[in-house]
Amino acid sequence: MDKFLLIYTILGAVFFFVFFLWLTSNRKYKSSFSVASAYDNWTNDRLLENLWGEHVHLGFYGHPPLRKDFRLAKADLVHELVRWSGLVDLPEGSLLLDVGCGIGGSSRILANDYGFNVLGISISPMQIKRASQLSLKGANCKFEVMDALNLQLSDNSFDVVWSVEAGPHMPDKQLYADELLRVLKPGGVLIVADWNRRDSVNGEMNFLERIVMKQLLDQWSHPEFSSIEQFQVCLSTSRFNKGLVEVDDWTLATLPSWKQSVFEGFRRPKAILSLGTNAFFKAIREIPTIMLMHWAFSSGLMRFGVFRIKR
What is the mean pLDDT of the chain? Predict the structure, then answer.
């Protein structure tokens, strides 16, 4: 009995330590520099890359969701977005801008599997460095550090503008929409996939939801989430838009990603343990936010919206 008591005491101490760390060491959005710093740290410690592979975004499990490997589901999200947006019809060599490219997982699929000439951008210098390291010589993709709200790119310069799960880090959603559309060529295609909150017309947040929402914003350096309806308006009313904004909701198709991202730690424990004790505590620290995300997406507080425009 004393042995079990000791084990439970240790486990309880670890739980409260992690919970205290989670509550007191958030990554609250302050500026674009706080976003860059968060992603620099996530990239430098290699924890996410070791655990989840080369894609930081959610996976696609189908309608209805099917059981599949988490890393495969992440790649499938890219392929499904290509299919849904009709990019397969574009000629090889078309210019594609990947906004918020992470360490380049999507960029490499788009270049290698579909023949696009890809420029991937991120506000994180470490992500761009790692993306460049992982990209094979000869692949039609390159990477640059750039702010999505101030793209150092000419008007009408890309056949495709692609952005997956970058919008929550943007404090000005209208400017974000304007910049994406500004650099899109006439006749080009815009694809955006993002985490979105429930629109207020569908119900104001209650007390519990407000508490959860604060953590979802503060823990991962998000200034604000847009609703699907709000961002559709941002795209539709942009002075650079000349096409119909089409929208779909992929919440159920991506929902298993949250639990699967935690289960990866049990499937691939060496991915964490090989990085040392510090990585173990970093991994444990993210679990409360991930589970809150699962609750928010499964309860309707959050939704996964996809948007396309063919100019």
Answer: 91
146, 116 contact by CB (below 8 A): no
Residue spans of beta strands (DSSP E) within 30-115: 95-99
> Which domains does the chain carry?
28-310 (3.40.50.150)
Residue 243: CA atoms inside 13 Å, Cβ hemisphere, count?
18
Question: In terms of residues, how long is the chain?
Answer: 311
| Of 33, 36, 51, 28, nearest in space to 216 by CA | 28
Predicted structure pTM score = 0.91
Report cis status (omega within 30 of 0) of the bond before 64.
Answer: yes
**In whole angstroms, how large is the CA radius of gyration of the chain?**
20
State pLDDT tens for residues 191-245: 999 999 999 999 999 999 999 999 999 999 999 999 999 999 999 999 999 899 9
